[in-house]
Design a protein that fits this description.
Chain A: Component of the NOP7 complex, which is required for maturation of the 25S and 5.8S ribosomal RNAs and formation of the 60S ribosome. Chain A: Component of the NOP7 complex, composed of ERB1, NOP7 and YTM1. Within the NOP7 complex ERB1 appears to interact directly with NOP7 and YTM1. The NOP7 complex also associates with the 66S pre-ribosome. Chain A: Residues 1-143, 288-320 are annotated as: Disordered. The complex is a heterodimer of chains A (751) and B (620). Chain A has a domain at 396-750: Methylamine Dehydrogenase, Chain H (7 Propeller), CATH 2.130.10.10. In chain A, 18% of the residues lie in helices and 24% in strands. Chain A starts with a helix and ends with a strand. Chain B folds into 5 domains: 12-74, no CATH class; 116-274, no CATH class; 364-455, 3-Layer(aba) Sandwich (Rossmann fold); 494-571, no CATH class; 577-620. In chain B, the strands form 3 sheets. A 4-stranded parallel sheet of chain B has the order 7-6-8-9. In chain B, strands 3-4-5 form a 3-stranded antiparallel sheet. Chain B is flat and about 115 Å long. Classes of the chains: A alpha+beta (751), B alpha/beta (620). Chains A and B meet through helix 12 and strand 32 of A and helix 3, helix 8, helix 9, helix 10 and helix 12 of B.
Chain lengths: 751, 620
């Protein structure tokens, strides 16, 4: 392709793109030639409307204005002429104007022989409306798509339809562009709905626009300037204002001088340096530590990182290398949880050691530690941990205490309650099946058994030694039972106390509790000699607590009014409720061994009442969620309280309302606690199946704290349905322990 | 009635501020706050009760001391940071408007902060500064090895490598390097400067690239501080030892890859330089003798007696010391017992120099081209040796390979078979000792010249152990197995060996013997022992083995029940501990057990490895 070809194709593109451009420019400044060029193609259309009369028109003198006035009358006269002439006349009337249009000449038509007026040719110069010149289509400036569905594209001057020019299909058009050499210089004419070749002027305009020149060829942008005010003889001699010239025009400014002087002074004093050295100059070092330091204490130095150990070596001993399992464990751990941030690796030679890929990360982590981690100064304890264990006397030196199981007595069901006779020779044990067995401590032989309807809630021997009986608490009833084979004197005395021949006078206020003695004739060892019927719906007596004299007895029932606490007096055969109302559910009660005090354990507190003065003495807060057991030291000054939350609290009643010591060593709930009446021992039993025996020495002087030494953990009961050892009791004169478990066995532990 | 106390007016509520409120108070951005904290060394604190410090909220926040923040508010750097913020705004405005000359003026007068006062504040004495340069050295050595990019301008890298070289020069000059350790992370060096041990880690010479989860801004802020700190520290160190700081750099040498050799140490005055450098070193040594040195000296004395024949190089420069008057203690008249004996400088000087700082002075080393020059040049020169290297490792080698004075060649490549060498080469080879790089490091850690035999070219190296030691009671790979373990392993060995060593016909006899021995082990009282002895005799066990067995079982049985009862008692006594004590006890026990189990696993592994080796030796 030659350069010319390229130019051509460019032009073609341009022409096709800017098809509107020529029409616009033609409206703007349509030269005469272009109009002539256009008229070539429109010849056929013209022939239709003009009948070729144009050729016949003679040359008309344009300057024949003078005739117009005289010929007006003829206009009027000839009004009744032919249609055609009328049309013509009217037409000319409309368009005629005195100033603009010349008068028509009247000539004799050689076709019709009639005279007719002939107007001179209109000269299309600058003033004329060239748009109406000879465009055959007179639709005006309407969107051409209105004619899209019609066979014509508008109307000519005579109101006839201008038919749509034939347009071939794409192939025809293509062929036309190929054949016609002027096709690339033609553009689509909207009004004519066909391609029209562009005139040379139009092409010239396109070329100029393309070359960024002024489109009008006639415009000269570099016209010589016309000088109006300058130049010889054109000077303005008079001033615009008559004001006199101000002084500042010729006197140097004082303020400027002051400002300059300021800068000059600053330069002289060295405050302004003309060429200041750049700020990014190098850091200068000087002996910074030569002048004395401030009194400020230096900040704590950051802890140094740990020094590397053997395992970090590039060539460690082989035992440091991780096994597969260790490696897997290390990789499975989260990077934060890893003890070491690397895996030991062995390289045969230094040249084989690769770069450490976490080097920068390690440095970064160290820096994060330095500025983001709170630092705490910790005193490192450099002690042997075994010194923390309190030094206590060896259990061997604190003998005797129970340390082995000497015999076992079997019940068929859970043994909830046991009691040891005051002389320590007999044990009664009751199970949930309602069976009460009396057996001998030394050999474990069962002497007698009683069967009750419901399960046994509590069981207790009377602490008196001159009489011998025990009380069994079952559903809403207390049975007083005399064991068999008693010496006759003891038997008689017991019978006289429990079933006196002359009943004491009934109290003035009738009690809810009924004391019933069967008739003498029906007395038998199988039957209770005395039965106390607790009020209805008072439930199972959970606990029986004797006063040390053996005359008063307190019971705690699971239900009933006044917390279920009843105080019974044997000699008067009378029962009363000591509390009108009590806060919390009463768990346990106890008599003080020496004083007329009464301990009441509710679910969370232990209250101490003075019975003689009838007032509350103290409230102990053991901090246990649910108290399960309690016992008082024989001296009466110390109390142990156990809870279902595994805690055992030792209270020094003289000292405080808070526990002196809290022991928490059972793994399950504590069920029972017992102080030995004579030996310095106490035992606790728990649902974990263990009984723990402690040495508890209490000193008489107030200065020495009680000494508590764990002695022995007795295991032997099996845990059944989550219940372990339910009750422990001590034998009075021996360091022996009797325990009843949920597995139905009662064990005797001897020293 | 006292004054009513309002909540939040005193105590922890006033003493601590959260980070957000600190930023609010300082009116700076979080990034600026971070930068300030790094530069000033302010770190968060842990209040005793987070709730009390944070108005009852227990949300996870970091707390700072309110006083620290008040202290930051007066910081000149903070002012400069604010100025910089204004400057950045002005500059971007000028650039946006295309006011180039204004922008240039602004750029020229850019506010720049100095950290000198911060260095002085954070390290009031020089010793404080030296104590804290570990991290700074690690960072500088790391950045000296990084490639420069848009975030790390070449000038920064250059400055870091200059500081690294200056430190190495100083350490070499004063011969204060003590230990070195080739680890998988890099090379640890430990030097003793101004009586402070300084440990730093240098990465191996590979290109490191910064991982994406690392905040470079934080690292660069630290580096900024560290560069200033090191500059001042080096200035003091150099001037104290009579050297010019900064040491002049020979650019031509530096371009030739001379590394440390491109810098030349210059004495501050001619008179100082004319004095022999040896005397100066002694003086410095005399000044820096410390309690630690004495302890090490005593330890090494014991060590020297034990190892005897080893060729240990000792430097005894104490003769050159001039005679000082001895301090004589005068006992006080009132309390004659209370005379305190002070260790005097003379007494210290009388001690043999344990630190063999001139360990390599009789030797001349030559580096093979595959060994990293920067490491071994530093180590060897720090211990007084001469070292040369091929031109491929950089320029500035004081001698070339053919030098006759070379005694050791540090080489790290396998032995090639069938290479033909000239007679001259062979002769040279016979005169020199070819050792692997680990030998150099092991020598300086041991403080004596080790035998070259296990370290010869191509041989399997002995394990490289950390010279820094581990915690007390940790597993020691150099010691043999402990008594119990050895005994067990022996017996196990016997058990293992017996069946396959003896023939089948002996097996019944074996069984009888075993039974007898077992009876002896079970025997407690004299009568049963007697019976067991007789049984053993019948079975044909000789008396020696019988005795041994009995003794072993005695030991075991005696230890066992007594321990058991004691343990049971202790367990019971634990019940009486308070909760706090119990927790402390549990914690201590936990860590003890962990250490013990670690040690046990290592010992077990070693045993297994030994057994395996034995088996392999037997098989092969």
């Amino acid at each position: 392709m030659t350069a010319a070809d390229i130019e051509q194709s460019k032009k073609r593109k341009l022409a096709s793109r800017d098809d509107l451009l020529p029409t616009e420019t033609s409206n703007f400044s349509a030269p005469k030639q272009s109009l002539e060029m256009l008229s070539d193609d429109e010849g056929s259309d013209d022939a239709v409307s003009d009948d070729g009369q144009v050729d016949d028109f003679p040359e008309i003198d344009a300057a024949s204005d003078s005739d117009t006035g005289g010929e007006k009358d003829t206009d009027e006269e000839d009004s009744g002429g032919t249609d055609e002439e009328d049309f013509l006349a009217e037409d000319s009337d409309d368009s005629l104007d005195r100033d603009i249009f010349p008068k028509p000449k009247t000539i004799i038509s050689d076709i019709t022989g009639q005279p007719k007026r002939v107007y001179p040719e209109i000269e299309p110069d600058y003033d004329s409306d060239s748009s109406t010149e000879d465009a055959p289509n007179r639709v005006g400036d309407v969107p051409m798509h209105w004619y899209d569905d019609l066979p014509h594209v508008g109307y000519d001057m005579d109101g006839k339809k201008v038919l749509r020019p034939a347009r071939g299909d794409e192939l025809d058009r293509f062929l036309q562009t190929v054949e016609d050499p002027s096709a690339w210089t033609s553009a689509f004419d909207k009004t004519a709905q066909m391609d029209k070749p562009l005139s040379a002027e139009e092409l010239d305009i396109i070329r100029r626009l393309y070359a960024n020149e002024v489109p009008d060829a006639g415009y000269d942008p570099y016209e010589p300037m016309t000088e109006w005010f300058t130049g010889k003889g054109k000077e303005e001699v008079m001033p615009l204002s008559a004001a006199p010239e101000p002084k500042r025009r010729w006197v140097p400014s004082k303020w400027e001088k002051q400002k300059v002087m300021k800068i000059v002074r600053a330069i002289r004093q060295g405050r302004i340096i003309s060429s200041k050295p750049k700020t990014a100059s190098k850091q200068e070092f000087y002996p910074i530590w030569s002048e004395p330091s401030t009194s400020h204490p230096p900040p704590l130095p950051a802890p140094k990182p740990r020094l590397p150990t053997n395992s970090e070596s590039y060539n460690p001993p082989e035992e440091y290398l991780p096994t597969e399992a260790e490696r897997a464990a290390w990789e499975a751990l989260d990077p934060e949880d890893r003890e070491r941030d690397y895996l030991p690796k062995k390289h045969a030679s230094l040249r084989l050691v690769p770069a450490y890929d976490r080097f920068i990360k390690d440095r970064f982590n160290r820096q994060l530690d330095l500025y983001l981690a709170p630092r705490i100064q910790r005193v490192k304890l450099n002690i042997d941990p075994s010194t923390l264990i309190p030094k206590l006397p060896s259990p061997q030196s604190l003998k005797p205490f129970p340390n082995y199981k000497s015999l076992k007595f079997a019940h068929s069901m859970r043994t909830r309650c046991i009691s040891v006779s005051p002389d320590g020779a007999w044990v009664v044990s009751g199970d949930e099946g309602g069976m009460v067995s009396l057996w001998e401590v030394n050999v474990g032989r069962e002497v007698k058994r009683w069967k009750f309807e419901t399960k046994i809630g509590a069981l207790e021997w009377c602490p008196r030694v001159d009489v011998c009986y025990f009380v069994v608490g079952i559903e809403e009833t207390l049975h007083f039972i005399i064991p068999p084979n008693l010496p006759s004197s003891v038997l008689l005395l017991t019978q006289s106390i429990l079933a006196p021949t002359a009943l004491p006078p009934a109290p003035e206020t009738p009690s809810l509790v009924k004391w019933v003695t069967p008739p003498t004739s029906s007395w038998s060892p199988d039957m209770a000699i005395l039965t106390v019927q607790l009020p209805q719906s008072s439930g199972l007596p959970k606990q029986i607590a004797w006063h040390r004299r053996g005359d008063y007895m307190a019971t705690v029932s699971s239900g009933g009014p006044q917390g279920g606490v009843w105080m019974h007096q044997i000699t008067r055969r009378h029962s009363q409720a000591p509390f009108k109302k009590i806060r919390g559910a009463v768990q346990l009660v106890l008599f003080h061994p020496l004083k007329p005090h009464f301990f009441v354990a509710t679910q969370q507190y232990v209250r101490i009442y003075n019975l003689s003065e009838q007032k509350l003495l103290k409230t102990l807060t053991p901090g246990i969620k649910w108290i399960s057991s309690m016992d008082v030291h024989p001296s009466g000054d110390h109390l142990i309280v156990g809870g279902y939350d595994r805690k055992l609290c030792w209270f020094d009643l003289e000292l405080s309302d808070k526990p002196y010591k809290i022991l928490r060593y059972h793994t399950r709930a504590i069920r029972s606690l017992a102080f030995h009446p004579t030996y310095p021992l106490f035992a606790s039993s728990s649902d974990d199946g263990a009984i723990q025996v402690f040495h508890s020495r209490v000193y008489n002087d107030l200065m020495t704290d009680p000494l508590i030494v764990p002695l022995k953990i007795l295991r032997g009961h099996t845990v059944k349905e989550g219940l372990g050892v339910l009750q422990v009791k001590w034998c009075a004169r021996q360091p022996w322990l009797v325990s009843g478990g949920a597995d139905g066995t009662v064990s005797l532990w001897c020293s | 009635m006292g004054r009513l106390r309002q909540k939040g007016k005193a105590g922890a509520a006033k003493a601590y501020v959260t980070r957000t409120s600190a930023i609010k108070k300082l009116q700076c951005s979080l990034a600026d706050f971070r930068r300030l904290c790094i530069l000033k060394g302010i770190f968060p604190r842990e209040p005793r009760s987070r709730k009390r410090a944070n108005k009852g909220s227990s949300a996870p926040t970091s707390f700072y001391y309110a006083k620290d923040i008040a202290y930051l508010a007066h910081e000149p750097v903070l002012k400069k940071l604010r100025e910089h913020k204004a400057f950045a705004k002005k500059l971007s405005r000028a650039l946006g408007r295309g006011e180039w000359s204004d922008a240039k003026n602004l750029e020229d007068n850019k506010p720049v902060y100095r950290l000198d006062h911060i260095i002085k504040e954070r390290y009031p004495t020089f010793i404080d500064a030296v104590r804290d340069i570990d991290d700074a050295l690690c960072m500088v050595f790391l950045f000296a090895s990084l490639p420069s990019n848009a975030r790390l301008p070449p000038s920064l890298i250059e400055n870091c490598s200059r500081l690294a070289a200056e430190w190495q020069l100083y350490v070499m000059h004063t011969r204060s390097l003590r230990k070195s350790f080739l680890s998988i992370k890099g090379i640890y060096y430990q030097a003793e400067v101004m009586d402070q041990t300084v440990t730093w880690l240098v990465p191996y010479q590979f290109t490191q690239n910064i991982p994406s989860d690392v905040d470079v801004r934080v690292m660069l802020t630290f580096l900024e501080l560290y560069q200033t700190l090191l500059g001042f520290v080096f200035f003091k160190l150099y001037t104290d030892s009579g050297l010019v700081y900064p040491p002049p750099l020979d650019i031509k040498k530096d371009e030739g890859g001379a590394g440390v050799g491109a810098f030349s140490l210059q004495s501050t005055s001619q008179t100082a330089s004319s004095a022999p450098p040896k005397a100066k070193a002694v003086q410095i040594e005399g000044r820096t003798v410390s309690g630690k040195d004495v302890r090490q000296a005593i330890k090494s004395m014991a060590g020297v007696e034990a190892d005897g024949g080893e060729a240990a190089v000792q430097t005894a420069d104490s003769n050159s010391m001039e005679v000082d008057e001895e301090f004589v203690p005068h006992p006080s008249t009132s309390d004659p017992q209370s005379t305190m004996t002070l260790t005097t400088l003379k007494a210290l000087a009388a001690l043999p120099q344990s630190l063999t700082t001139s360990l390599f002075s009789p030797y001349t080393f030559y580096l093979s081209r595959e060994t990293p020059r920067s490491i071994f040049e530093f180590i060897v020169r720090s211990f007084g040796g001469r070292i040369g290297w091929p031109a491929s490792s950089g320029s500035g080698s004081p001698f070339d390979e053919s030098d006759d004075s070379i005694t050791h060649v540090i080489i790290d490549r396998p032995v090639l078979e069938g290479t033909s060498e000239t007679t001259e080469e062979r002769e040279r080879r016979s005169r020199r000792k070819y050792v692997q790089p680990q030998w150099v490091v092991d020598c300086i850690n041991a403080g004596k010249i080790l035998l070259e035999e296990p370290y010869t070219q191509g041989s399997t190296l002995p394990p490289h152990l950390s010279p820094f030691g581990e915690y007390e009671g940790a597993y020691d790979p150099t010691a043999g197995l402990t008594g119990q373990a050895v005994e067990e392993s022996e017996s196990e060995d016997e058990d293992v060996v017996l069946p396959d060593a003896e023939e089948d016909e002996d097996q019944e006899v074996q069984l009888a013997e075993k039974k007898a021995l077992r009876a002896a082990a079970a025997a407690n009282d004299a009568a049963s022992l007697r019976a067991a002895e007789l049984a053993a005799e019948v079975a044909g066990v000789d008396f020696g083995t019988f005795e041994k067995e009995v003794r072993k079982s005695r030991k075991k049985s005696k230890a066992a029940p007594k321990d058991e009862t004691e343990a049971a008692e202790q367990d019971m006594n634990k019940m009486m501990m308070s909760n706090k004590q119990k927790k402390l006890y549990e914690k201590m026990k936990y860590s003890q057990n962990k250490k013990a189990s670690e040690r046990a696993t290592l010992e077990e592994k070693k045993q297994q490895l030994q057994k395996q080796k034995k088996r392999e030796a037997k098989a092969g």
